[in-house]
Amino acid sequence: MKIVMHCVYFPPEVGGLESHVHYLCRGLARRGHDVTVVTSLSQPGLAAEEVIDGIRVHRTPLPSRTPLGWFAHAAGSTPRTRAAVQGADVVHAQAFPSLLPCALAMAGTSTPLVCTLHTSHFLRLAANRVFAPALGKLVELSDYNFAASKEIADVGEGLGPTIEVEVLVNGVETDIFRPQQGSLARTGGRRRLVVPRRLFPKNGVEYFVRALPAIAAGAEVDVIVIGDGPERNRLEALAAELGVADRIDFLGARPHAEMPALLCSADMAVFPSLVEATSVAALECMACGLPVAASAVGGLPQIVDDSVGGLFPPADPAALAAKVLELLGDGELDRRGATGREKVVSMWSNERLVDRHLEVYRNLVARSSS
Predict the structure, then answer these.
(1) Structural domain boundaries of the chain?
(2) Buried/exposed code over 99-129 (b: 16+ C-beta within 10 A; e: otherwise)
(3) According to DSSP H, which parts of the chain are helical?
(4) Taking the CA of residue 33 as centre, how many other CA atoms within 13 Å lie in the half-sphere pointing to its CB?
(5) Which phi-psi region, left, alpha or beta, contains residue 341 (left: φ > 0; alpha: ψ -120 to 50)?
(6) Are 99 and 139 in contact (CB under 8 A)?
(7) Whether the Cβ atoms of residue 279 and residue 309 lie closer than 8 Å to each other
(8) Who is most buried in 149, 172, 178, 228, counting CB within 10 A?
(9) Which residues contact residue 10 at a Cβ distance below 8 angstroms, ignoring those fewer than 6 apart?
(10) How does pLDDT run across 110-151, given as a tens digit for each residue?
(11) What is the pTM assigned to this prediction?
(12) Could you tell me if 312 and 296 are in contact, meaning their C-beta atoms sit under 8 angstroms apart?
């Protein structure tokens, strides 16, 4: 089967959407399918065309990392997309900005168009009464829709009476993200927490930093924060102001290949998000055998419960600290970590994700040719 994906970002960009598309495409290519990705020249020095893990990748200019820039990229990528979709069996738009270039490129064909709705950006636009009608028209262009969380699916279906959306939680490469030797040495007898979050306001890392004095008062801990962003300087200053700078290490962004061993350097992961789809990063932590404490927002309650960690209200440092201390103190970290690993392998592996995509693709192809 010839499959074409369109997405704004693709590795070496780091993030949940990027990981999802990369591993899905790699899984499809390993099953013998012809997979092409049209994406953006999002970093200096990237090749306009290359092959990654058996995936043909075509990159076109990205004016800026803003909604306007995404749509400008979408429009500018339409000629490249039109060339890629020639002879394709199915075309897949990974997130709403990719729907328009795919639909324009496929004009006059009967090729099925699939869309996956991702990210908090979609939720924000859908909540805007000015943008919501146009967003609904975009989603109606697709023949089949997936969403990374029930929240996103419900919002997507609310955009139009004919829109149907299947919830399909993102997958994890469980042969890569697995329990293993950690790559960072421990500090004395302290427990280690990991916060694998890019440093943007929506990820709520400020509230973790504000909770850290109470956590440190109740347990011997240190913290690694993996991710970068515009909030880094402010968060480092806040940690110093609160007297916990010696307990928290901001590692910055790290290559995705380094993440399994970095995650396995910790005893527990914390996700203090204010908004969230279904977090690939949380699933990766669980696949590595880490218990997860997370905000009760977005898709996180779909994957995190008491059996694998616990939930706390968003933007509440006191509740965050109480949940982390509860989990550190009840003697069940290993059991919760093992349960999380089992759940990811059985329900949220990338193999399961590939299986379901191929099932939908084949049904759509059969319908379009009948």
Answers:
(1) 2-171+349-369, 191-347
(2) bbbbbbbbeeeebbbbbbbbbbbbbebbeee
(3) 16-30, 67-76, 78-84, 99-105, 119-126, 132-139, 150-157, 205-218, 232-241, 259-263, 280-287, 300-303, 317-329, 333-347, 350-369
(4) 24
(5) alpha
(6) yes
(7) no
(8) 172
(9) 18, 21, 22, 37, 39, 40, 42, 57, 59
(10) 999 999 998 778 888 889 999 999 999 999 999 999 998 888
(11) 0.84
(12) yes
Q: What string of pLDDT tens digits covers the 370 residues of the chain? A: 999 999 999 999 888 889 899 999 999 999 999 999 999 999 999 999 999 999 999 999 999 888 788 778 888 999 999 999 999 999 999 989 899 999 999 998 999 999 999 877 888 888 999 999 999 999 999 999 999 888 899 999 999 999 999 999 888 999 999 999 998 887 778 999 999 999 999 999 999 999 999 999 999 999 999 999 999 999 999 999 999 999 999 999 998 889 999 999 999 999 999 988 778 899 999 999 999 999 999 889 999 999 999 999 999 999 999 999 999 999 999 999 999 999 999 999 999 999 999 999 999 999 988 7
- Residues found in the chain: 370
CATH 2.60.120.40 matches 191-347: no
Give per-residue pLDDT as tens, 46-89: 999 999 999 999 999 999 888 788 778 888 999 999 999 999 99
The span from the CA of 357 to the CA of 105, in Å, is 22
How many angstroms separate the CA atoms of 205 and 301, rounded? 18
Dihedral sign, Cα of residue 81, residue 198, residue 323, residue 307 = positive
Q: How many CB atoms lie within 10 A of CB 162?
A: 9
Q: Which fold has domain 2-171+349-369?
A: Rossmann fold (3.40.50)
In contact, 236 and 258? CB cutoff 8 Å: no
In this structure, how many other beta carbons lie within 10 angstroms of the beta carbon of residue 145?
23
Q: Tell me how far apart the terminal alpha carbons of the chain are, to the nearest angstrom.
A: 17
Could you give the angle at the alpha carbon of 341 between the alpha carbons of 335 and 344, nearest 5°?
Answer: 140
Q: Which residue has the tokens 């010839």?
A: 2
* Preceding omega of 12 cis (within 30 degrees of 0): yes
